[in-house]
């Protein structure tokens, strides 16, 4: 009925082994405990999940402890589905504390973070019904708000790769809510109380109405990362250390982001990825899979410049330049002079470039070292070798 | 001196008839009771009006009750002007409660909202001087802050059509204030107290300085409407259900908005209207009457796409496409090949299109099914029949 | 050990004379007293300085009093460096109050603001360690957070000219922090407390992560200036009275801004300056020294229009028009018809314009009355005389 206090790290390991060798036990690929925000009108509706910590392909011992703590608190863990979610109670916390006993003293700072989670819960007088645990057994379509958030955390904390997580159906699972600071409100609750709140002067200051929260509501960026306005980065985006997001026309959607230090003054649409050292100029747009790329997600290489107010609708390699104000789409016809084509071929030894003078954008996708321009005397879109150095992979050549 | 408690719905109707048959009585086209925010320095200055409910060409019985309740509270209602505004007091609330007595019990949810307003007021110990009632007798230039707000609410709650309300002079009536959450502050008050507040650590976090509040400070959108950042939609804008406003370069000004579900990632300037199913791409600009359209307000039809960073300076019909990055103004010269002209004519049977190869933008305004492009081999702006289906009005043809 | 209460304005003047004639005394070019925000983890780290008042080439008598008050409080003021910063204490406040005695009664409103600062401090039970005084003896590289903020205030309160202040190294001095309203938090503090705060529901709503605060956190704009969204103007920007900053794609960086009433719907990058009566259209970009202007800071003259989504990469004179959607860079080849060249020359009597038909953008920089367009039938970028009147300086001609 309860886990007895574990008195040594060896005993802890034994406990884990006992748990994981249960018939039917499945190692979760991800798990975590969240404080959830419930609907003001409909308390059964989960509006948001706040994780102090997520585990992503790691800390399998803690997972075993949590599963055992649930079982001993009379909660059957169902391993047959792709995910399992349950409300935890004080009994669960007790059990987990007993199991973690050998680690409690040293669980501070970066050490034993799952133990810290349980310690924080054990310090509360009564944890009530607002703490939920979620396990993902595989990367299937998420089936709960907690599962969606766990995956958004994995993306935004760089524990999972962009585009590599299954978020199908997430929009259907999340509720559209009014965000007041970090607190989500049901729109219907506001409607029902509008008259009273408006007349009493207690109507809240709503920051946004959306299904997703903002990145900064949940994620602490690296010390050298800057986000000058929280609304510009959606939860589920991924920002590598050193990225700067300016507040003009910029926006980074979920499942999109940067792989290294990038200056972002434009839009990185859902599924688009930008490499280290690149620069998304003021108002520049990288099209997303839902807007003009025919489902072809765009990657931008390293050290590439997208000029102010440019539009890029195809993948680009390293060391490219798209001039300010121009648009390069898969169907754009682009002229290349023979001598420039030779230089481009040299910078892209693996590309098989036809010998001709007009290319479609799609034929140049992913190539390195291209400078896209519009000739202001003829209106022609042209490409030539950029002035930026392309670092060839020496092992390959 | 007071309205006696009305004991039946018939007696209520009689009361209304008595009031509205007074000599000189005029039915208000709109009315409402607002909690007002007054200047911190100058309490005579109304900075904002918060309506729990507005009435727009409706609820004339409640209007009669409110007028009677004012009269019995010794406030003469002046029907001779285009609007009337007064501070209400406890006496007024008492009178209105007495008149509404037959409806008080059932006034919850969506029922009897004016009664709910009076109930909320009657629950306050003392309503003080911050509640004001406003009646508009015609759609004249607004003469008070309360009248301006009543009209902005009418637009933003879709009770009035865009461009159909007289807001002349509104900028002159509203004060430029510092918004801290939902609270407006006089700039002079901040100036006078700057030293103390800065040193005491009580200087407020100012969200904006403007005459207008934001849409979300006053309006609850439909369940499937999303506004990812409150600053992007000004009070007085109108958003049809299903509209999504992204946080990049978007902005929807007052007296502008959408008529159906629209994805908004660009700018809908004052007086511009976008039809159902259309898409205002990232950074796309629809020019407003004050910026380049020569006072010709722009309507965009249904199912039309404005590409990323495009600029549209003329009205467009249904099923059009403006390619990413291009600019179409009234004076833009646009080339149309004869076979494309024939297809455009077919999609626009009522248009009288001259048989020629170069058109000015203005000659194509409001037409359906046009795809505007820039030929990237010649720089020419061209138009052709878009690939989108135009649904012709069968009754007419 | 203490300043005795000064009993007359003559005695005050004598005190100032005594102080300033000390051997080694140096008049500070700027000074002020700030409430500082210290690191939550590392209290030695100053995260922000809040000035109720700054003095910039003014109020040298108050400077002398402050220096004397420090000296009498056993704080040696070091005049040998370019700046001096110290924590003040109650003793300092006492001394300064004693010196300011003749002015205390009349120090309200706009009168004797430094005395108001001391009064506010003297009203506190204990000023603790969070008040710091800073003196700048010359405009050298700032060496402290307080010095950086003093200079940012000077720019944003229009006490110093844009581009004329030495802010070298400011980015190295300021800490990158999470801004929660007006309060900066160390990122490491959030990291250390993330688990507890997330589970307790006390994790703060972070508005931004940046080294700089926002303009409106510190500065009260003129009565006719509007900033519709605080994130759009960085601390250190300068906005002349009557400037309006819309919330779409706009942004004004530090050390950039306007010299008169300007409508800003686009980006004014660091070091760019826009003259009175000009209009930065929706999404228009003025490039900064770090992005494409080769270090040549851009000034835009008066009454010039930058069309929606245009990009301007070179300085422009008065009465110019850059059409919506076009890009003009230093290297852009621009065609000018002979008759238009004559008109441009007439509008710019001092310019030495070569007689030719194709110019580079750089050759036209700073000229008045030019209208930049793209011919939509040929794709050529052309310039002609704009329809706007250029006011020539009569004294010169």
TrEMBL record, chains A, B, C:
InterPro entries: Hexapep, THDPS_M, THDPS_M_sf, Trimer_LpxA-like_sf, Type2_DapD
Source organism, top-level taxon: Bacteria
Record SUPFAM superfamilies: Trimeric LpxA-like enzymes (SSF51161)
Residue ranges occupied by any 2,3,4,5-tetrahydropyridine-2,6-dicarboxylate N-succinyltransferase middle domain in the UniProt entry: 174-214
Keywords attached to this entry: Acyltransferase, Amino-acid biosynthesis, Cytoplasm, Diaminopimelate biosynthesis, Lysine biosynthesis, Transferase
Name of this protein: Tetrahydrodipicolinate N-succinyltransferase N-terminal domain-containing protein
Lineage of origin: Bacteria, Pseudomonadati, Campylobacterota, Epsilonproteobacteria, Campylobacterales
